[in-house]
Give the backbone structure.
Amino acid sequence: MKKFLFMAAALLAFAAPAANAQRVNTNSELKKLEKADATLLDVKKNTKAATWNAHGKAYTDAYMLPTKELAQNIPMVTLQMNVGEPQDMFQGEFQGQPVFVARYEYVDVYIDQAGIILGWSQSKAVKENLAETAIESYKKAYELDNKLGSKISDNTVTLAQALAEQGRALNGVGRYTEAANNFELAHRARQVVPTTTIDPSLIYNAGYINVLVASTATEGQVELYAKAEAQLKEAIEVGYKDEGMIYYYLFYCYYGQKSIDADKYLALAKNTLLDGIKLYPKNADILNALMTLYTSEDKAGDPAELVAMVESMLKEDPTNYDLWFGRGRVFNALQNYDECIKSFEKCVELRPADYEPNYFLGYFYVMKADAMNEALNNDPTITYEQRPAEDAKVNAVYAQAFPWFEKAHSINPSDIAAVEYLKALSFRLRDMDGMMDKYNKYNELFKQMQ
């Protein structure tokens, strides 16, 4: 705590007493905007693309002014040199962590104990709807003269970057709805000039954040899910790529709207997951959502449909590692461990030198043995005399996992997960020849790795 208080004092002491406050002259900026607005009322000037481009630039500058000196991971002293000392400095919280808060007229700036800016929260703007107005002006400029496209594009990219940066800052302080809006506006700014490079992650971020907002909303959930749906679909259209999570979130958008029309939106939700799993068969979140949907919604259909789909895909592409991996995940969700193991045996066959398939083959042997052990413990018909023989059957399956974990460990000796399983398995199987020695080896290694 002493260090914390000392740092706060040091930060306050850094700024010279004569330093100006944050350099935003609101009256001056509003006069500039009034002047820019006046040019649009001029009958001759408002027909020129340059007039509208300049109008957009004036509004862009006003939008950026309160935060243009801010950036994450820069020293607070840099900000103080550029804009002066804050109005106040106090202790606060940022993403659950204690921080310093430097309060300026337009923003609260969050600083860690090393004096580095983590983020900020803008409390007011020079004028409302600055970015929206700028975008509309740039659209009008391009409409009037697309030959001015490169100049307009330079301005829209500048605005988009500022909007995205502000979106990240808003997201960091929990102002999620505003963050999503900023990301969408950044995307719209980049769309003004068709030749401007589109960043698909902007509209994806807007949709993704709105899904999360909708999931915790107490009212307006359906509308939020519908908005997120449109944004995520657009992200796919403009080329957003990930490991399939966009389909997972789009599924939630449809599922969240089922109160409107259950048949329609359940079908859309299911088909979105099926589309996603065809493209990303290893995505565990999509598979889990599919299995949950099939088992919780009668209208979703029989889980066998999913199995049939994966099998059909494998007939067309029998050496596709990701499909075999996905098949294993499907049968794991169905608790059919024999078929799950069969899938991962194929994965090992296809990629024998890779850590992942060897590790998971061992893992699913353990899952099978765990299920057998649980069934045995819950079987009231097993007598005391029968128990040793039944335990031996379970241990035989556990023993089948052991060599795969050893192979995985030999491929990646630094991964602790395989070592932890080897330690646990060798202890369980300690009565087998050589297993106590293996336990001592892996137990010691596990301690060292921890």
About this structure: Residues 352-450 form one domain. The longest helix spans residues 387-411.
